[in-house]
């Protein structure tokens, strides 16, 4: 049987889009970030087309995504407004690269479980590190780590727990010999009508998305910018809004993790 010829490393954008961004990928219910749908997927094709000739593997691109996320969180520890802005920009770059690694894999036909694993590692590391980095920032930098850093670390732990609750569904089904669960609203919905109503109401206040890297970095940038404005006007002390955001993050993370666990155990994900 004749093997298909390998795809070129110099495709047109149209050729690349047809293979790397099929409707089954860009239309996924819970797997596509709103920024990807809105604008990053439009940009990622150009980045993918640029890196294909380098020969870097899809997993290599994912490693790059991990590094960019870690750098973004590290930059946030610097107690300046510019550092917060740089972190927000780097989180955008991270998701752009996150779009690109899958595009490289689909174009080359090299999708693998390792790629999925590394992608998960990247998001776990970044989203847990951001609240910790904010705590260090509010404390005044690495040279003055204190109570705010501890608060950020507790928030980061809750973020990790929340993310693990979702992935553990797949682990439990695998151990039980069941296939991957369907990504449908019916399967994910709680059997409790009260929880369904509460989940529907949260569409108007989606605080459970606050700890996704892009959202968290943008909320932190908004708080830092408001700090600058209010401090210049003499309304508040320097850093008061960021301290409030760091303090609010802990109960929000607790509510997010607890609510997500409750939704999972009352859903049809284990059937």
Automatic annotation (TrEMBL):
Ranges in coiled-coil conformation: none
A GO biological-process term: phospholipid biosynthetic process
Regions crossing the membrane: 50-75, 201-224, 244-265
A Pfam family assignment: CDP-OH_P_transf
GO molecular function: phosphotransferase activity, for other substituted phosphate groups
One annotated Gene Ontology cellular component of this protein: membrane
Database matches in Gene3D superfamilies: 1.20.120.1760
The entry's keywords: Membrane, Transferase, Transmembrane, Transmembrane helix
Organism domain of life: Bacteria
Protein's recorded name: CDP-alcohol phosphatidyltransferase-like enzyme
Organism encoding this protein: Marihabitans asiaticum
